[in-house]
Structures are given as C-alpha cells and as structure tokens.
Amino acid sequence: MITVHSGQNPRVRALRDLKQAKVRQETGCFLVEGVKLCAEALRDAEVVTLLADMDKAEAFAPLLAQASDVLLAPGRVVEGVCEAQTPQGIAASVRFPRPLALSAAQGPLLVLDGVQDPGNAGTMLRTAEAAGFAGALLSPQCADAFAPKTTRASMGSVLRLPLWRGMLEEALVLLAEEGYTLVSAELGGTPFQKTTTDIGARFALVIGSEGHGVSPAVSALCGLRVSLPMRGRAESLNAAVAAGILMYGLTAGNLGGVDRETGT
After folding, report:
1. Which neighbouring-strand residues pair with 29?
2. pTM of the model
C-alpha cells in the first residue's frame, strides 16, 4: 500500500490517462470508478491498481485487502482521476477481459452496428448479460465499451460479458457459417412476436445506430428482419429500450437454466 499526494504523480497520471481511448488500447487496461464497480472488478476481472481516498481507507478496507497494488491519495487527487459527477473516492485500473471467440460462441449474441451513445451502448450490454446472451459484437463506429461512461452504464457487465470489436461483415459471415441466424432490427421488418417460437438460441441480433439504423452492408447479410409494433403515434423508441424488448422477446422460451430471482 503506497501513499501519494500529488495528481502529477506518474502512477496517478497513468490512471487518469485511461480515460483516453488511445491509452486504453496501448496499455490493455481501462478505468472503473465507484464502490460497486471496483468490487465487481475485484471479483470478476484482473485489477491492476486500486486508488482510494486516504480519508476513506477504513471504509474501503474490505476492498483494499483484495487488491495486490493499492494507492492512497487525498480526495482531490482521486476526484481528478474519476469522471463521474459525484465520485465515491475509489477507482481502479482493470485489464481488458478476454475477447469473445466467435468460432466458439454458443448462445445468442448482440451486435451493435454503429451505436454511438455510450449510455445506450452500456445499457444494451447490461441488458444482454441479464437476458442470458453469450456475448456482444461492436462495430468500429460504436461507442467504446471500456470508456468510463459506457462502463458505468453497463453497471459492470463489460467485466463479464465477452465482447468482440471489429468489422461486422466478416464476423457475421463467420457466424452464419457456424449456424447462426442473423437477425436485423429494422423498421418494416416482421413483428418480432412471430419469430420467438422458431428462431432458436443460436442467433445474432443486430441493433443499428441511433440516427441511421442498421447499415446496408450488414442488413444485406441478415436473413431475418424484425420490428417492434408501433401502436401509438410515436415514430420510434430509444435504441436501448428497443434492444431490450427484442433481446427478451427473441429469447423467450429458447434459453434454459434457472432464473436467479424466481427460481424457475
């Protein structure tokens, strides 16, 4: 356990720099903030360094005891590292989890085609984990799954849900060869309720960007296009809301296992 006092300390700067995408790629690490995410990172991932407010060290003692490398610093130094509006006085650098292996995927997959809002992307990843998805694919144009805003919106799901990032066309062709049904969420598609009984569990659901939807090249690869009925006068739903409805709707009756809450 090391105590530092300046925000210009090299190790503090290294943590603060993880808010930059370039630095995350160079180091293979990302930043998590707050008690909940730090606790989940210690449980579910590889924490490199834990930074905590020295005045809250006693309160954070259970977490500090789990970390192999701990920095204690004044509250203002910790706040300078964090991006949240109300920092809780603790943050950590975490190794990127192992990426999704496309050739070994077994369950349903979420595919984000240009979803640019970090809040939407993080919420979709959180929902995918909750709905029992096996992983998620993100196009190069998507919000960075390991950016602070996305990580917070995912509520820790980026620590556990296997992710893959790259050109979707090549990945989707591979998944189709592996027996996956490619499903695109598009206006004018088949109402999703009509697909829930025969789609099976090996499918990849594509959600397009907030402004432009699924890209033409990706849409052309999908053998099934689904939509949500719009019974009112609203023209569309928030992308994360629509994705959540589709994820749960398309997996209805197709996923086994026991629900943690209901036991059914």
Report:
1. 95
2. 0.90
